[in-house]
Amino acid sequence: MTTEPAPSSVVTDAHWMALALAEARLAAEAGEVPVGAVLVKDGRVVATGRNTPVAQHDPSAHAEINALRAGAAALGNYRLDGCELFVTLEPCAMCAGAMLHSRLARVVFGATDPKTGAAGSVLDLFAEPRLNHHTKVQGGVLADESAAVLQAFFQQRRSAARAQAEPLRDDALRTPVERFAALSDYAFAPHAVQDLPALNGWRMQYVDEGGEGGEGEQIADCLCLHGPGEWGYFFRHLVAQPGLHVHVPDLIGFGKSDKPKRETTHTLAWHCGVLLEWLDRVQAGPWVLVHSVSGTELAALLQAAAPERFAATLVAPEGNERIQHAWRAPYPDRGYEAALRALGPIASSSGPTQAQAQVFALEVRNAMGYSSA
Predict the structure, then answer these.
(1) Could you confirm whether 64 is annotated as catalytic?
(2) DSSP symbol at 124
(3) How far apart are CA 78 and CA 83, in angstroms?
(4) Strand order across the 136-138 sheet
(5) pLDDT score of 213
(6) Given this model, what pLDDT does residue 156 score?
(7) In which region does residue 209 sit, left (phi positive, over 0), alpha (psi from -120 to 50) or beta (all else)?
(8) 62 — phi, psi (to 5°)?
(9) What average pLDDT does this structure show over 331-339?
(10) Residue range 248-277, pLDDT digits in tens
(11) pTM, to two decimals
(12) Which of 356, 10, 331, 338 is nearest to 174 (CA)?
């Protein structure tokens, strides 16, 4: 395929890479990894290519290979002397080898590929002096744009995989993860449970951190329970304290857990039943039950239902940090707020400060009869 001449006698590499990016986006729309390539000779596009391994059931159908094949057919020659190839991602070893065999004059790529890149990231075939042909190579042209297309594709794929593994009920909402992106002080690894009978298919998110200490050090299992209008963020400064193994569930309807749309779902007795099933699953303890002031009633229900599980109960201190943005994060609009309407409005307390959490962690350990960490 040969196109019209470029509108200007001097065309930048970025111009050709932008065309390759258009091919990459078409690949993404087709469900392929978004890589695109453009073959150019004498200021004209000879051929284009994009990833099609999935559609063609062909592991060699990378964007570069497709562009080289189409270019060779268009020029009637398996040698592509004088041609330049623009590709959005650093070529792999297969594609780099094909480029060298085709006698390309120059290869230009966008984003680097630290896992399979053969133009300098993992190895550099283009710099191998023992090969009988050498092709000039340049990277970094529209690198950020090329990387962004790839990142968006894989992020969407991961989201789809999560949604399939953890389906959302029709009568519930799930807060987009982007709503929590600004809360860097609560960037702990996420855990979730959805198959407990009491959950009825809703997903409960929780934090599970700590549990490792020095030789001979006793670790206190700590269950942190927020109350209505709060979520696990209340305990953000306590989670990483040494000497503790901290579990922080977000009650259904709050925080990062699913949000049933009906207010009638949300009763403290039901939440207590969910927590009891979850504790059976976790199989840790005995616990120090730590709760906010707002969580006092729920904590009392839980302790009364299973007193043998808890060695001690403590009320977490409350600081005066301004975190209204964090309290609002789980609720993009009123449709997410059924639990708030049923059990209580958004809280005003910020939870323990960093300094308070350090002191309180010692109180938790002392409640178990452990020496200070």
Answers:
(1) yes
(2) B
(3) 12
(4) 44-50, 36-41, 84-89, 106-111, 136-138
(5) 63
(6) 82
(7) beta
(8) -75, 160
(9) 96
(10) 999 999 999 999 999 999 999 999 999 999
(11) 0.61
(12) 331
Edge-to-edge order in the sheet of strand 310-315? 191-193, 204-210, 244-249, 220-225, 287-291, 310-315
Q: Which two tokens stand for residue 358?
A: 């350090």
Residue given tokens 């002397």 in the structure block: 81
The residues near 35 (Cβ < 8 Å, ≥ 6 apart) are: 24, 27, 50, 51, 62, 63, 64, 87, 88, 89, 150
Mean pLDDT of the region 336-343: 96
Please report the pLDDT score of residue 372 as a whole number: 59
Is the distance from CB of 206 to CB of 233 less than 8 angstroms? no
Residue 312 backbone phi and psi in degrees, to 5: -165, 160
Q: Which residue has the tokens 């297309």?
A: 149
Bridge pairing between strands 244-249 and 220-225: parallel
For residues 233 and 255, is the Cβ–Cβ distance under 8 A? yes
Q: Under 8 Å CB-to-CB from 38, ≥6 apart: which residues?
A: 16, 17, 19, 20, 23, 45, 47, 48, 49, 67, 85, 86, 87
* DSSP characters over 165-205: HSPPPTTEE---GGGGTT-GGG-PPPEEE---GGGTT--EE
Kindly tell me the number of DSSP H helices and DSSP E strands found in the chain: 11, 13
3-class SS of residue 262 = coil
In this predicted structure, the answer to whether residue 9 has a pLDDT above a threshold of 60 is: no
For residue 259, the Cα-to-chain-centroid distance in whole angstroms is 20
Burial class (CB in 10 A: 0-12, 13-18, 19+), 271: buried
Q: How confident is the model at residue 279 (pLDDT cuts 50, 70, 90)?
A: very high
Cα–Cα distance between 243 and 361 in angstroms, integer? 8
The tokens 């390309």 sit on which residue?
104
Q: Which of 137-141, 216-220, 270-274, 312-316 shows the lowest per-residue confidence on average (mean pLDDT)?
A: 216-220
Q: What is the pLDDT of residues 90-129, one digit of tens each?
A: 999 999 999 999 999 999 999 999 999 999 999 999 999 9
Residue indicated by tokens 């002392």: 366
Instruction: Spot the catalytic one: 64, 84, 90, 209.
Output: 64
